[in-house]
Write a structure and sequence with these properties.
The complex is a heterodimer of chains A (310) and B (224).
Chain A: H1 3-7, E1 12-14, H2 24-32, E2 35-41, H3 52-63, H4 65-71, E3 76-81, H5 91-105, E4 110-117, H6 123-139, E5 143-146, H7 152-165, E6 173-175, H8 183-188, E7 192-196, H9 205-215, E8 220-223, H10 235-245, H11 250-266, H12 273-276, H13 280-287
Chain B: H1 3-16, H2 21-36, H3 40-54, H4 63-72, H5 83-92, H6 100-112, H7 116-125, H8 136-144, H9 148-155, H10 160-164, H11 167-179, H12 196-211
The chains are: A alpha/beta (310), B mainly alpha (224).
Chain lengths: 310, 224
């Protein structure tokens, strides 16, 4: 059975996806599958940047061009802004990036500081993770934490310990890339638990179904983290379909694929459930009274089945 | 144009908007702090944070206000703006204009780090900023921009291009407007700045469209 059949009419919020690395085909497929909103955390682009201007342009693209690109497919695009853990290790550059972060974290549609946390768990990573927790606290923004691939369990615990040490309310922290080994502690300590459905290296969605069955839908949310690697931008709708097939209630599916992420990130004051349940194009016609815009949400559609290209 | 008079008129327009008390209080307070001690960091912070305090309701421009704006800056209009856009343009006028280099540098930094709605406000402000000749290149960057709302902010209902673009830049803007499906009748100065070279280029463009079996954009006949 086509997974699309079982999720028709449902809306999804992919709370971690790197659209900068994806194509318009992905946007189209996501919109068709019911993805109405997404969060793009600032991350490592696959190779190190060598100057602060590259960071500035990247951050500006997350609040500018990428947001516009998404809007052409009727998708609301939010982002979290931060210095990722890998590049925190280039000390001189990291200092310069820290200087420009305040220019971006107060911008519209910036729903948190992220993704930040640990990669190798070096002293430099520790330093900038802490500095950014302070920024988030000052701006009253949620924090989106990337937990490390290596030494994950210990790194996850350490990330939460430090957040608490800095006086951050666990309810303001989304701990991402969880697995069976980390989820219990994250939930027990009152943090939000994000799960990345990403083939081969992170979670598979059958495992995800089992986790929701075991822990219930409270404070759990899933994402694709689709990026420049082998990943799947439809991970959220596909997992919703699988959950449905395996007997999880529509209400629980809605919580882990939509509402929980909205509740967590709405604490930024930059998005709301009310806003997300309105179609994007209505919003635009109101905002751009009388002037011709590129018909938001209705970009000319290419018929992919046709051999003829016009 | 007198900047402080324009600033007063824009502020009066903000005050006229329904339920704007909170916005007015915030803006007045920020302006007082900034005047007493003009810190660039505060200037940037307020510019960015404005939507949180003033909201995004569409602005209602009464006929007498429209007239007052036009009298101070010919062809300038705030019609169709939202309140955050209006407040941001007003806020830009609070920057001291005593030193051109500092002034241009400060505002150029805002362009560099701007998100979509900030860009819309910045381009809308070009006709009322100090040192108008300094923004020529920046204005052409707005037309090169690929985001529809940003293009519209500089192309439509904005007298800056009409007043400051040379013929090549003007013609590029008109072409781009046709290419990006803008309603060209909303371009300020469309008829005043008609020229032979533009007519020729547009005729070529129309021929190319016909050859490809595509339709012609509306109103192209106005300029050919």
């Amino acid at each position: 059975m086509d997974f699309m059949d079982s999720i028709r009419g449902m809306s999804f919020f992919d709370m971690h996806v790197h659209m900068t690395s994806r194509t318009t085909d992905d946007y189209q497929a996501m919109a068709d599958a019911g993805v109405v909103a997404m969060i793009e955390p600032a991350f490592w682009l696959g190779q190190p940047r060598t100057g602060v201007d590259s960071f500035r342009d990247y951050f500006a693209s997350l609040v500018g061009w990428e947001r516009f690109r998404a809007s052409q497919f009727g998708i609301r695009h939010y982002c979290t802004i931060g210095l990722n853990s890998k590049e925190a290790n280039q000390l001189e550059l990291a200092e310069q990036v820290m200087e420009i972060l305040p220019l971006f974290i107060y911008k519209e549609g910036v729903v948190g500081v992220g993704e930040i946390g640990f990669d190798d768990q070096t002293p430099a990573e520790d330093k900038y993770y802490r500095a950014q927790l302070e920024l988030a606290k000052e701006a009253n923004l949620p924090v989106q934490i990337h937990t490390p691939h290596r030494d994950k369990k210990q790194g996850t615990t350490r990330s939460m310990d430090i957040a608490i040490e800095h006086g951050i309310d666990p309810g303001m922290v989304i701990v991402d890339h969880n697995n069976e080994e980390t989820v219990k502690e994250v939930l027990d300590r009152g943090f939000w638990a994000g799960f990345t459905i990403y083939p081969f290296t992170k979670m598979g969605n059958e495992r995800m179904v089992d986790i929701v069955k075991q822990y219930g839908p409270e404070r759990i949310m899933i994402n694709s983290a689709a990026d420049w690697g082998i990943s799947d931008p439809l991970a959220v709708p596909k997992t919703a379909a699988l959950m449905k097939q395996r007997g999880i209630s529509d209400e629980s599916i809605r919580l882990v694929t939509f509402t929980n992420a909205v509740t967590a990130f709405a604490q930024s004051g930059q998005l709301s459930l009310e806003e997300l349940t309105q179609p994007l194009n209505i919003d635009q016609s109101k905002r751009y009274n009388g002037s011709s815009v590129l018909r938001g949400g209705q970009a000319p559609r290419v018929d992919k089945e046709s051999t003829i290209i016009k | 144009m007198n900047i402080s008079q324009m600033s007063q008129t824009l502020f009066y327009l903000i005050e006229q908007q329904p339920d704007s008390e909170k916005a007015v209080d915030y803006l007045r307070q920020q302006a007082a702090t900034f005047q007493a001690n003009p810190q660039t960091s505060q200037f940037y912070r307020v510019f960015t944070a404005i939507p949180r305090y003033v909201g995004k309701h569409p602005v209602d421009v009464a006929p007498d206000m429209a007239f007052a704006l036009e009298r101070q800056r010919p062809r300038f209009t705030a019609e169709g703006w939202t309140l955050d856009r209006l407040a941001r343009v007003w806020w830009l006028l609070q920057l001291p204009a005593d030193d051109e280099t500092t002034y241009v540098k400060t505002i150029s930094q805002l362009f560099k780090a701007a998100e979509l709605n900030e860009l819309v406000a910045l381009y809308s402000a070009l006709p009322v900023l100090a040192f108008p000749e300094s923004w020529r290149f920046q204005a052409t960057e707005g037309i090169r921009n690929n985001i529809a709302d940003v293009q519209s902010a500089i192309m439509l209902h904005n007298p800056y291009a009409m007043d400051y673009f040379d013929e090549a830049a003007w013609n590029q803007m008109i072409l781009k407007a046709f290419f990006t499906d803008k309603d060209v009748t909303q371009i300020t100065g469309l008829h005043e700045r008609k020229n032979d070279r533009l007519a020729h280029t547009l005729a070529d463009y129309a021929a190319e469209r016909r050859a490809a079996g595509r339709s012609l954009p509306p109103n192209i006949e106005l300029l050919t």
